[in-house]
Design goal:
By secondary structure, the protein is of the alpha+beta class. Helix content is 31%, strand content 32%. It contains eleven helices and 13 strands. Strands 7-6-3-4-5-11 form a six-stranded mixed sheet, with helices on one face. Strands 8-9-2-1-10 form a five-stranded antiparallel sheet, sandwiched between helices. The radius of gyration is 21 Å and the shape is globular. The protein starts with a helix and ends with a strand.
Length: 298
């Protein structure tokens, strides 16, 4: 069996390029991605969409400095083929779910565009920091050709940080691999200068973006190319590149009978009676992992 550390599967690698005031994250999802996707019989376009979203969620979640914080990414529309996509990250745990109209999806063909899937949708990215009970949220239109482009818009509009993101998804033989790269100009690099977001042609950022932009989709998903080697390929001419491994990634659904019982207890007895089936059970199913929880209130 191939070592997960060697392939980079289910691992985030953090890196900085000090001389260029740049930082980044790179991730490659493998077994954990197959586990999340296996919860539902998603058709291929939806599998690829969710794989891209989970890779992005891992990247953004790895930016959290709060170990108990949570990153949630939600894409939604009122009349799209996909009416809800939601993923979250907490402490290395990933989960995700897509709700869609299968009949309408089949009419779009095998490679529908982002606009065909969502129409006039929006993307909400939320950072919840448990240590300070603070919440930061940015909402951007689902424009462009991918979720990655929408995430770049989020950082530019909400965080005012120049950001480059690349994502690649590859499926073969019933297995799916997703790789993603994020590179940003460090806020500390702006001190004493004109705000960088007003000058996207800054030479340091242009240089870093050009190097990171040379990454190919195949490199992102190649299990024979370790993440450290991938970063080295991009930035080997720099005087110093610092790397550090983040938390290993796992599928982390937090559903439980106790959780749903506490939620249902907030409803009145008459309301719970309406929810119950003929056997007197309220059956709750978790959209993330497809588990069912039959609960009785006597």
């Amino acid at each position: 069996m191939t070592d997960q550390a060697e392939t980079g599967f289910d691992q985030v690698l953090q890196f900085t390029v000090p001389a260029r005031d740049a930082r980044g994250r790179v991730v490659r999802l493998g077994p954990v991605l197959d586990t999340v996707l296996s919860a539902h019989a998603y058709p291929a376009p939806i599998r690829n969409l969710l794989a891209e979203a989970l890779a992005l969620t891992a990247l953004l979640g790895a930016l959290l400095k709060d170990d108990d914080g949570q990153l949630t990414m939600q894409a939604q529309t009122q009349d799209g083929v996909v009416d809800l996509l939601v993923c979250d990250y907490r402490g290395g745990e990933l989960r995700g779910y897509v709700r869609h109209d299968r009949a309408r999806l089949d009419e779009l063909g095998p490679h529908p565009s982002l606009h065909a899937l969502f129409g006039d949708g929006y993307l909400a990215i939320t950072f919840d920091l448990s240590s300070s009970d603070q919440r930061y949220q940015g909402i951007v239109p689902l424009e462009g050709d991918s979720l990655a482009r929408a995430c770049e818009s989020y950082f530019f509009q909400s965080e005012q940080v120049p950001t480059l993101i690349r994502v690649s998804v590859h499926s073969e033989g019933g297995r799916t691999v997703a790789g993603a790269l994020l590179v940003q100009h460090l806020p500390d690099g702006e001190e004493g200068r004109e705000r960088l977001h007003a000058r996207l042609d800054h030479p340091e950022w242009e240089h870093v973006a050009a190097l990171a932009g040379s990454l190919t989709p195949a490199e992102l998903t190649d299990p024979q190319l370790g993440l450290e080697n991938l970063v080295w390929r991009l930035f080997h001419e720099e005087s110093e590149v610092r790397v550090a491994r983040g938390l290993p990634l796992t599928r982390g659904c937090r559903c439980s009978a106790e959780h749903y019982r506490e939620l249902l207890a907030r409803f009145g007895e008459a309301q719970r009676a309406e929810m119950a089936n003929d056997d007197g059970l309220i059956v709750v199913d978790c959209a993330f992992c497809s588990k069912e929880f039959p609960l009785r209130f006597d």
